[in-house]
Specification:
This protein is mostly helical. The chain contains four helices and no strands. The chain starts with 5 loop residues before the first helix and ends with a helix.
């Protein structure tokens, strides 16, 4: 049993992925390929753990209703819609980008990473935002 809730654990994993991605980006801009590789492995591992935990949690728990109303509800739903749509889109991009880097196919890796990185980062960051809005700003009563 976790000392924190599963949604909190999932948000921590998303935040961890974001930090690894940003650090990996900084390292590759500084041409530190080893540190970049290590950060991206960390991002992949934390994102993979997140996805497994998220799917198991929602298989047993179902959805949590957002209780905010008015403008904040529209903001939440917009963030949720873009987050969810891009999460589906980014999964094959992440796998392909990671595979190409792992196999040292750097020319093709860089070409797709330019698309994968901002989408993956957006999905990870908005995952934390959705968690915060759902469980802290407007928790279910």
């Amino acid at each position: 049993m976790l000392p924190i809730s599963t949604p909190t654990f999932n948000a921590i994993l998303n935040a961890t992925s974001s930090i690894f991605m940003i650090a990996g980006y900084i390292f590759i801009r500084r041409n530190n390929k080893t540190a970049h590789r290590n950060c991206m492995i960390g991002a992949m591992m934390s994102s993979s753990l997140f996805l497994i935990s998220y799917l198991i949690y929602h298989a047993f728990h179902g959805s949590t209703k957002f209780t905010g109303v008015g403008l904040v509800r529209n903001i939440y739903l917009t963030i949720l819609l873009t987050h969810t749509t891009l999460a589906v889109v980014v999964l094959p991009l992440v796998i392909t980008t990671f595979y190409r880097g792992w196999k040292s196919n750097f020319q093709r890796h860089v070409r797709i990473a330019r698309w994968t990185f901002p989408i993956w980062l957006y999905v990870s960051v908005t995952g934390v935002i959705v968690y915060f809005m759902l469980y802290h700003l407007y928790p279910a009563r």
